[in-house]
Amino acid sequence: MLLDTASLYYRAYFGVPDSVKAPDGTPVNAVRGLLDFIGRLVQDHRPDDLVACMDADWRPHWRVELIPSYKAHRVAAESAVGPDVEETPDTLAPQVPIIEAALDAFGIARVGVAGYEADDVIGTLTARATGPVDIVTGDRDLYQLVDDAKARRVLYPLKGVGSLQVTDEAWLREKYGVDGPGYADLALLRGDPSDGLPGVPGVGEKTAAKLLDAYGDLAGILAAVDDPRSRLTLTQRKRLDESRPYLAVAPKVVRVARDVPLPAFDPALPAAPAQPELVDALAHRWGLTGAVSRLRSALHR
């Protein structure tokens, strides 16, 4: 089980009241929510391995070089020496180090790699896996990793993690008319304002799905642009042709990396906290005894 950690703690932050605070008044709603998410996931799914995948760089320079608008609207401050600073709610940013400390104290593997997003870590771990993989994320971009033949699914939280949309190929075809790899092509064709991806003008989700159904993939669509016998409309042909510079680089931006140089780590789900005294200290300091107790109980079963 691979967690898109930032996606989940953002959901926890907005889903758990900000009245949840530590004894010193520090908001800890995202921390408590994430620990409860993980406890529920462990309880319901009993994964052999569990990895909290992290955004070491939420806006990698190599993606920005290809498409400068990539996540540009979410930049709070640019940095010349490291990742740009992301616009984050004032009371969420201080909770991230607490989340990291809690994961480490429990012994839950936490993996991030400089220059890559959590999606890329997830893509690489999925590519390396020899058995079934469940990806837990609120980010539809990871639908591209769905693969029934290899038992790769996305569990998409609808309400907390007690209600999860199990995304497999049948669900993708019903909803979007594509399979996992096809979802990446659909996403880059239609664009995504939340990620600063312009897409092809005039090509929305339904048109993108129809083009992929007719021509197979992005390469097939571009071949159809060059084929005067294809059934593309004049407008579609013109817009796709004018978008070639974007379409030449968009696949590398949209598709997750599968070759990230990962550090050595133990992905095994712990049966008990790795550092029980530190877990107790964190629970006491941040007023998280309930969430810590629930996660401890879930791991023990």
Question: Could you please describe the fold and organization of this structure?
Answer:
By secondary structure, the protein is α/β, with parallel strands linked by helices. It is built from 13 helices and 8 strands. The strands form 2 sheets. Strands 5-2-1-6-7-8 form a 6-stranded mixed beta sheet, with helices on both faces. Strands 3-4 form a two-stranded antiparallel sheet. Helix 8 packs across helix 9. The two termini are 17 Å apart. The model has no long low-confidence stretch (mean pLDDT 95).
Observed structural traits:
8 strands, 301 residues, two-stranded antiparallel sheet, six-stranded mixed β-sheet, alpha/beta, 13 helices
Overall geometric form: elongated
Average of per-residue pLDDT values: 95
Computed over alpha carbons, the radius of gyration is 21 Å
Poorly predicted sequence stretches spanning 5 or more consecutive residues:
none
Ends distance: 17 Å
Could you state the oligomeric state of the chains shown? single chain
Largest sheet: 6 strands, mixed
Strand order of the largest sheet: 5-2-1-6-7-8
Q: What proportion of the residues is helical, as a percent range?
A: 40-55%
Discrete helix count: 13
Judged by helices, strands and strand pairing, the structural class is alpha/beta
| Element string (H = helix, E = strand) | EHHEHEEHEHEEEHHHHHHHH
Number of strands: 8
Range of strand content: 5-15%
